[in-house]
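Hey, can you fold this one?
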Amino acid sequence: MSTDLNVPYRLEFSVEVPGTAEQVWQAIATSTGLSSWYLPTEIEERQGGSVHFTIDPGMGSDGHVTGWDPPRRIAFDEDWAALMGTDPDSLSPLTTEFLVEARSGGTCVVRVTSSGFGTGADWESQWWDTVAPGWLPFFDNLSLYLAHFPGQEATRLEVTASHPGDADALWATLHDALGLDDEGATVDVRGATGTVERVGERQALIRLTAPVPGMLSVFTHGQGDGTATAGVQAYLFSPDAADHVRREEPAWQDWLQNLAVRA
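Sure. Predicted structure:
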């Protein structure tokens, strides 16, 4: 029996990014583009095409393209119920739309809307409360990608490690151990040099310049069980990037796991 879905959830925001409409479209509507600033993505570039976002190893989100008007509009539905492990009739599809509007001066405004319907359960509203804080930082990645690496394919480095305690204490430890500074500062992060582009709540974004150019995001978040996770995500743009990742990913993993978190 179907569940009555009558509680609307909606998130809307817009960002101005550098680049032409065609460059922005490549970034938001192709597998290569989306994987180079967002999650590893497979998308069939057509109306009705399939979409798959890899969230974590063994966890993904599947959907279909419901709107396809290059280079102006893309929309897709994801199976929200399957993603959350609930009854198929308990939630509507999670619908996302990107609208691209070219501006004079070589920029575009990207308007993003994400919406769905639920039953009003507490966990639904709690989940939607986490959508904006978890999603918006990726659009800083998008802006940085379009400014410095448009059209390029990223090689990803991604590691996490859990520690007892809360996310704030873990962030303070991670921040100090990496020698992070204010936005605009030049930093050396475990042998990689770059510029701090953003510092937010328990997260920072660094544009790397050497030894491999790219983007490095570092963050912490709570798990709700008395532990917190520290993570590193890098999008690297170089023919040498794959070798760099094979060498550095285990080193980052060991470094994160051995952080001495201060009380």
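The two ends are 51 Å apart (CA to CA). Let me know if you want another pass with a different chain boundary.
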